[in-house]
Design brief:
By secondary structure, the chain is an alpha+beta fold. It is built from one helix and nine strands; from the N terminus they run αβββββββββ. The radius of gyration is 24 Å and the shape is elongated.
């Protein structure tokens, strides 16, 4: 007698569902990693450029660093070592982030965040001690910079004004 074996057994079905679940999990993790990569890259570049600007400022009589968006929507750091009376085109500009990245900062360890889209972050370094000067021509120091992408994972940069230390948290 011949049996009609059309279809799948329960064991075969469970194995196929298990394999699909594992593959879906791997894709989900990969998409999550790709989603935060631009913010992480922007944070690392921002720390690197600010530390370089700090070292360069030691040999200059004038220095000013500004973090803002350029006309194309990218995050840029503009370094001015020539004086207050020059145009932005004469300053050194470094792109540190993509359009999809958001950058906010706090002053004096406050709880409110200021977006660079509203008010670009601008400060100088003390030539002798490398300490970080007042931000945005106020009597306040920038103490933290937060870099995110789409409200996701935040990459935090800590600035210690008196010592001049700039580091990722």
């Amino acid at each position: 007698m011949k049996k009609n074996n059309k279809g799948f057994t329960l064991v075969e079905l469970i194995v196929v569902i298990g394999i699909i679940a594992i593959l879906a999990g791997m894709v989900g993790i990969g998409v999550g990693m790709v989603g935060k990569k631009p913010a992480q890259e922007c944070s690392r570049k921002l720390v690197s450029v600010l530390q370089k600007a700090q070292r360069t400022a030691a040999g200059k009589s004038y220095n000013r660093v500004t973090v803002k968006r350029d006309t194309e929507g990218r995050i840029v750091v503009i370094q001015n070592y020539k004086g207050a009376e020059i145009s932005e085109s004469e300053m050194e500009m470094t792109v540190v982030g993509q359009k999809s990245v958001d950058v906010v900062y706090t002053l004096d360890g406050g709880s409110s965040y200021i977006s660079i889209d509203e008010t670009p972050l601008s400060f100088s370094f003390d030539r002798a001690s490398a300490s970080i000067g007042y931000a945005n021509n106020t009597n306040s120091y920038c103490t933290e910079i937060h870099v995110t992408r789409g409200g996701g994972t935040s990459f935090d940069i800590e600035l210690l004004p008196l010592t001049g230390r700039i580091s990722e948290k």
